[in-house]
């Protein structure tokens, strides 16, 4: 499952954007969004999702359970 950003909690700080190894995060209207087609859950790059680690707001970058798991 890719990660998603809870829009109502995103402050637009941009901390997550540069940490994504897949360039899956971009700014949209003052907040940031994850492209689910590009997010690999950081699999192949890191043990932990970098957007989660970078985000200063708890529970803002979260798994999108509506989508299937990423398969490498
Ligand atoms: S989990 Fe990793 S690949 Fe997915 S958006 Fe976050 S930093 Fe990018
Ligand atoms: S790090 Fe968190 S608060 Fe900052 S832009 Fe990314 S999702 Fe939004």
TrEMBL record:
SUPFAM superfamilies: 4Fe-4S ferredoxins. Keywords: Iron, Iron-sulfur, Metal-binding. Residues 1-30 form the 4Fe-4S ferredoxin-type domain. Pfam families: Fer4_10. Gene3D superfamilies: 3.30.70.20. InterPro entries: 4Fe4S_Fe-S-bd, 4Fe4S_Fe_S_CS. The keyword Cell inner membrane does not apply. This is 4Fe-4S dicluster domain-containing protein. It comes from Tepidiphilus baoligensis. The lineage of its organism: Bacteria, Pseudomonadati, Pseudomonadota, Hydrogenophilia, Hydrogenophilales.
């Amino acid at each position: 499952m890719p990660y998603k950003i809870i829009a109502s909690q995103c402050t637009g700080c941009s901390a997550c954007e540069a940490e994504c190894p897949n360039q899956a995060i971009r700014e949209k209207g003052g907040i940031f969004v994850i492209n689910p087609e590009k997010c690999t859950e950081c699999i192949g790059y890191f043990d932990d999702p970098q957007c989660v680690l970078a985000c200063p707001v708890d529970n803002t970058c979260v798994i999108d359970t509506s989508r299937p798991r990423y398969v490498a």
